[in-house]
Amino acid sequence: MEFREKLLKVDQVLNSDDTKALAFLCKDILKCDISSVKSPIDLFKRLEEKDVLSEDQPNLLADLLRVIEHFQLLRELDLNSTMSTTSTLEVFLEMEHMDLLSSSNLLRLEQILKDVRPVLWKQIQQLKDSQDSNITTRKTTLRSDASLLELWF
Questions:
Q1: Are 64 and 74 in contact (CB under 8 A)?
Q2: Greatest mean pLDDT among 49-63, 95-109, 134-148
Q3: I want to staple 3 with a disulfide (CB 3.0 to 4.6 A). Which of 23, 55, 56, 143 is the partner?
Q4: Is 57 left (phi over 0), alpha (psi -120 to 50) or beta?
């Protein structure tokens, strides 16, 4: 299958949520308002204009499909062998190196997860809410303990 045919096949298979996720993943490359990306083909044209996607450079397409978990499409298009070998850990380390990620700044990572893996993002939010609730409970307990101590003295 020719590269253009592969791009058309991807365009036919992906839905609007997939398109939004792909656009979000490419926003640093595109450096434009990602809401203006209307279809996968539109995105692919923009990526080709930036010289990051071509028949000679299909890695980005394969990586994007892997991130949004379209493994069947990867197999159908025979793109499994073209995926880059960059691990998630390497991506996180690069984000940290670029000051996009730190132990006190996880907002960028949360935004990526919100767009790409909403179920995981929701679990993280629930965990944070639970931790906030525990902190509030501890503060309330400490205040009432402090009030009791004041009564004693």
A1: no
A2: 49-63
A3: 55
A4: beta
pLDDT surpasses 80 at 75: yes
Q: Per the structure block, which two tokens stand in for 120?
A: 């995981």
Residue-by-residue DSSP string for the chain: --HHHHHHHHHHH--HHHHHHHHHHTHHHH-S-GGG--SHHHHHHHHHHTTS-SSS--HHHHHHHHHTT-HHHHHHTT-GGGS----HHHHHHHHHHTTS-BTTB-HHHHHHHHHH-HHHHHHHHHHHHHHHHHHHHHHHHHHHHHHHHHHH-
